[in-house]
Each structure stands twice: as C-alpha cells, then as structure tokens.
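Recall the central idea of this unit: under ordinary conditions, the amino acid sequence of a chain determines the structure it adopts. In this exercise we apply that idea directly, starting from the sequence alone.
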Amino acid sequence: MKIPIIIGVSAFVLFFVLLIIIGASYPFAGSLIISFLIFEIALYHHFKRQKEKHRKFPD
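Accordingly, the structure predicted from this sequence is:
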C-alpha cells in the first residue's frame, strides 16, 4: 500500500515544480489534481495485482 502513496507524493512534487517553472496561474491546485489522478491509477493497479495474487486457482 506504500507504493501508490509514494507515487502520488512524488507526482505532486514533480508537477508542482514543473507548473511553477512554466508559470501556471495555480500550480498548487493543478499539481493536486494531476497527482490525485496518478495516485488513483496506481491504487487501482495495486488492488488489481493483489486480487490476482490471492486468486490463484489450481488447474
């Protein structure tokens, strides 16, 4: 569960710096939105991987 959180926080920092560099009008809000979407995708993949890991049926 730590991996999606690390991905979300690192995406926030990366996009916050990037939006400041390009001169966006609201870099904090923009980076929050983008990092939240990336966090949700990472969380979906994490749960999907856990579901496949626990659902191994014998042939």
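The chain is about 85% helix and 0% strand.
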